[in-house]
Structure formats: C-alpha cells, structure tokens
C-alpha cells in the first residue's frame, strides 16, 4: 500500500504529496490523518526545514471526504449521531489542529480540484499557488452537509465573509481565474509550471533564518485573531530572541561590511 502522505524534498524545502488517487486524495482515512500529524511533528522538530509544499497526486488536489463511504454508510458514516460527533473530533478535525501547530510556512500547490474538505485543506495553508486547472468548491451543502473540518473558520479568513458565504451557501465551484480575483490564491500558473513555481517561492522563504521564519509565522497567526495589544506583546517578547540569534548577528555583520 502506498504511503498516503509522501514526504520528499531536499535541503530546506519539503514536499508533502497526498497519494490516494484511487479515492480522489480523500483525507478522511486514519492513515492520512496520522500521516499529517507525524509530518507536522517531524518538521517542527527539524530546524533545517524552512518551508513545506503540500500538493496532491494525479489530477486532483483533494476531493475531501470519501463520498463512497458516505453512500455505503461504512466507517464513521455507519455510526450513530453521538458516536459520529466524536469520530469527527478524533478524525478529520485532527488535521486542522495539526496544521495549526505547524511552525514552518506551508504552501498549497493546488494541482486540480479542491472539493469540500479538500478546499478547506487548501485554506489551511499560509499561501496558495494554483494550476490553471485548479478549482475550489465548498460543496458540503449540495450533499446536505456542513463544513465539519473548520472550513467555516478558514475560508472567510482567506476571502472575507461575503465571498465565503457565497461559496458555502451555494456549494458552487470557483475556477482558478476567479480564485485569483477573489484572493483565494496568490497566483495562477500554467499547469506544468505549478511545482517549479511553488518551489521557487518556497526557496525564497526558506533562505531566511529558520527561527525568524517560525516566529514571524506565529506572529501572523496571532494577528489574525488576537487584539493589537496581544500582538504587540508577542512581538516584544519574540524580538529579543531574534536579536540574539547567531544567524541575525551573522547577517548584521555581513550587512556592516557591505557583502
């Protein structure tokens, strides 16, 4: 059996590839969920990692939940309502919690359709780069469902409440050009240039000192939901650590000599 989350790459950039093309790179299986947790913990522990690229194998980024299991009422979908509630908490909701504690910048290289929980997965990234073949759909409502994985939290922070409401309440698909216009992605590139473009961006990020990168990302996260005062307090606590980082001192010395 293939590893559901393949990790590759060299140097400071890792590539995480969801490798379940036979089920549309669905992210509800226990193996893929634990794979995300293990990948996050390993990246956090390795300060040589400066950036991570997340993509999907084949033609789809991720179709989200396993609709066949829903139709067949197998796995968690065969449970009663109370047990199913805990299955969400101890299942797919572990992915946003894991990615929420990822210390290094995460770039989603969206190579195709990102549907339902797959759309939400892309929203969990810090930056999104899309192939011209990519599309996004917060499609839960079309199946009589709601976003069960935190999508209502992530999507509106990416594109604002009104556009998130339009996507959530219609379930309609948004193409790559519209995604760029709405700010859902930072850029759209020809399909064959997707991974090279994501790598180029990741390398520009990862060339910066690793501790500063991790603190800067944490400060950005705090700034999304915290008050100005809490953000300033965190910055005041972090900056002295940055000032005493040997890499900061090395770069300041290099600047002083004009190199």
Automatic annotation (TrEMBL):
Superkingdom classification of source: Bacteria
GO molecular function: enoyl-CoA hydratase activity
Catalytically driven reaction(s): a (3S)-3-hydroxyacyl-CoA = a (2E)-enoyl-CoA + H2O; a 4-saturated-(3S)-3-hydroxyacyl-CoA = a (3E)-enoyl-CoA + H2O
Transmembrane segments: none
Keyword Lipid metabolism carried by entry: yes
Keyword terms, alphabetized: Fatty acid metabolism, Lipid metabolism
A Pfam family of this chain: ECH_1
Keyword flag Lipid metabolism: yes
Gene3D superfamilies named among the record's database cross-references: 2-enoyl-CoA Hydratase, Chain A, domain 1
InterPro entries: ClpP/crotonase-like_dom_sf (IPR029045), Enoyl-CoA_hyd/isom_CS (IPR018376), Enoyl-CoA_hydra/iso (IPR001753)
GO BP annotations listed: fatty acid beta-oxidation
PANTHER family: 3-HYDROXYBUTYRYL-COA DEHYDRATASE-LIKE PROTEIN, MITOCHONDRIAL (PTHR11941:SF173), ENOYL-COA HYDRATASE-RELATED (PTHR11941)
Family the UniProt entry places it in: Belongs to the enoyl-CoA hydratase/isomerase family.
Function: Could possibly oxidize fatty acids using specific components.
Protein name per Swiss-Prot or TrEMBL: Crotonase/enoyl-CoA hydratase family protein
Source organism of the structure: Mycobacterium paragordonae
